[in-house]
Amino acid sequence: MTDISAHLQHEITLDQQLALHTAATRLADEFDGIYSAETIERFLHTSYDQFATAASIPNYLPLLAERFARQRLRALARVEGHHRDGRPVVLFLCTHNAGRSQMALGFFTHLSGEHAIAWSGGSEPGIEINPAAIAAMAERGIDISEEFPKPWTDEVVCAADVVVTMGCGDACPVFPGTRYENWNVEDPAGLDLVGVRPIRDELERRVRRLLDELNVTTTW
Known about the structure:
- Keywords: Arsenical resistance.
- InterPro entries: Phosphatase-like_N, Ptyr_pPase, Ptyr_pPase_sf.
- This is Protein-tyrosine-phosphatase.
- The protein is α/β, with parallel strands linked by helices.
- The protein has 7 helices and 4 strands, in the order H-H-H-E-H-E-H-H-E-E-H.
- A 4-stranded parallel beta sheet has the order 2-1-3-4.
- Helix 4 crosses helix 7 (193-213).
């Protein structure tokens, strides 16, 4: 078993190291024949370091790292042609990945079901999802409480067919050959549930329109 702690930029407990080894094993099984153990561990290590400085719950770090590494590896597999299933991929970006982009992701995933893929990210990821955004989406029967703010990475952007930006300005990535849309939607940061509801409803309208443009069958 390799010494994962030696490859990380931040201190790590024994329990966290064991959890990361378990995560690496799961990812190796999932991407067997596509990526080597070394590549998987590199993605896992860099994903862990992305969250280590800001996360408020250290014991949750290995799970966050595994989830983010899995998303990045799936994106890379699409970019490199290892996995193309014909489903459109949409990436929602905002500044903190804590409100607008997470609500848009929630609507897109719920409405599209298995017919499309959506990811989200932020130019300056926050620490947690906006509680008012979680509550507003719960009113629509959509649970985004298990989501987490995360940065965007090159492979995720390159794998997207459409990149939707909301407020991240020049910090948002631009790659040739990708369709970009900028949605001028108010930032829900600092607003209560009443203030977030109109933003939620506007995002739903825009997501439904995008799904229609992509010819994706919606579930409701």
